[in-house]
């Protein structure tokens, strides 16, 4: 297949730059502790300095994979499928989610919300980043807000973001892993003073699983 044809299929969402896919336990947020199949799509220009999957940023490093093949792999394992990245909304998620839905999957997305919302979702986990703020549609539709806390200034950012999401959105503060020992006491104290927030931990890292 010619490069131009592949690029066209990627633009249409019929192929996607697949970085990895795996069956594991959801480690974070509202659905932590539950089995799910993860699809990690390459490509992200949000550029968080503390990102723990920086190898996902360059979409060129991840082979365009036929969406139908991704769907077939995912539905062998679990009826809950989590689309993550990178930033999955860099790409049109309509084709992927339509095919997964047709096979009865429950669909979750983990996104910074920086790009237009595409696809059909049962659960939207919004993790906003300062460099590229979410679109209003993602604020309006987010089921959970997960703010990563690297320093105390991120708590102010968290409150700014909480003011923009819908009233039913569940609010989480999650320590950035590399500074967790310093940040966890700060978050615990903050949540006790502001109980609208909950603590999210990367429990998969404590469990030593993907």
Automatic annotation (TrEMBL):
The EC number(s) this enzyme carries: 4.3.99.3
Record pathway: Purine metabolism; 7-cyano-7-deazaguanine biosynthesis
Alphabetical list of Pfam families matching this protein: Radical_SAM (PF04055)
Listed InterPro entries: 7-CO-7-deazaguanine_synth-like, Aldolase_TIM, rSAM, rSAM_sf
List of residues binding [4Fe-4S] cluster: 44, 48, 51
Cofactor: [4Fe-4S] cluster; Mg(2+); S-adenosyl-L-methionine
Keywords: 4Fe-4S, Iron, Iron-sulfur, Lyase, Magnesium, Metal-binding, Queuosine biosynthesis, S-adenosyl-L-methionine
Domain of life from the UniProt record: Bacteria
Binding-site positions, substrate: 25-27, 40, 84, 210
Stretches assigned to the Radical SAM core domain: 31-210
SUPFAM superfamilies referenced in this protein's UniProt entry, alphabetically: Radical SAM enzymes
Residue numbers binding S-adenosyl-L-methionine: 50-52, 86, 127-129
Catalyzed reactions per annotation: 6-carboxy-5,6,7,8-tetrahydropterin + H(+) = 7-carboxy-7-carbaguanine + NH4(+)
Top EC class of this enzyme: lyase
Cofactor remark from the record: Binds 1 [4Fe-4S] cluster. The cluster is coordinated with 3 cysteines and an exchangeable S-adenosyl-L-methionine.
The keyword Metal-binding belongs to this UniProt entry's keyword annotation: yes
Quaternary assembly: Homodimer.
Family: Belongs to the radical SAM superfamily. 7-carboxy-7-deazaguanine synthase family.
Described purpose of this protein according to its UniProt entry: Catalyzes the complex heterocyclic radical-mediated conversion of 6-carboxy-5,6,7,8-tetrahydropterin (CPH4) to 7-carboxy-7-deazaguanine (CDG), a step common to the biosynthetic pathways of all 7-deazapurine-containing compounds.
Protein name per its UniProtKB record: 7-carboxy-7-deazaguanine synthase
Organism: Mesonia mobilis
């Amino acid at each position: 297949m010619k490069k131009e044809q592949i690029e066209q299929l990627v633009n249409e969402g019929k192929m996607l730059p697949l970085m990895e896919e795996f069956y594991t336990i959801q480690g974070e947020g509202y659905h932590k502790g539950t089995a799910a199949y993860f699809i990690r799509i390459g490509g992200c220009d949000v550029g968080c300095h503390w990102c723990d999957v920086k190898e996902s940023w360059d979409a060129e490093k991840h082979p365009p994979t036929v969406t139908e093949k991704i769907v077939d792999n995912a539905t062998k394992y679990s009826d809950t499928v989590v689309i993550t990245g990178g930033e999955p909304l860099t790409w049109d998620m309509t084709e992927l989610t339509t095919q997964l839905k047709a096979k009865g999957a429950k669909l979750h997305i983990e996104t910074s919300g920086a790009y237009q919302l595409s696809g059909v979702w049962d659960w939207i986990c919004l993790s906003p980043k300062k460099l590229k703020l979410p679109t209003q549609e993602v604020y309006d539709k987010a089921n959970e807000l997960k703010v990563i806390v690297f320093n105390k200034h991120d708590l102010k950012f968290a409150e700014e973001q909480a003011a923009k999401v819908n009233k039913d959105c569940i609010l989480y503060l999650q320590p950035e892993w590399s500074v967790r020992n310093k940040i966890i006491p700060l978050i615990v104290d903050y949540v006790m003073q502001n109980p609208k927030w909950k603590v999210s931990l990367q429990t998969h890292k404590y469990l030593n699983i993907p």
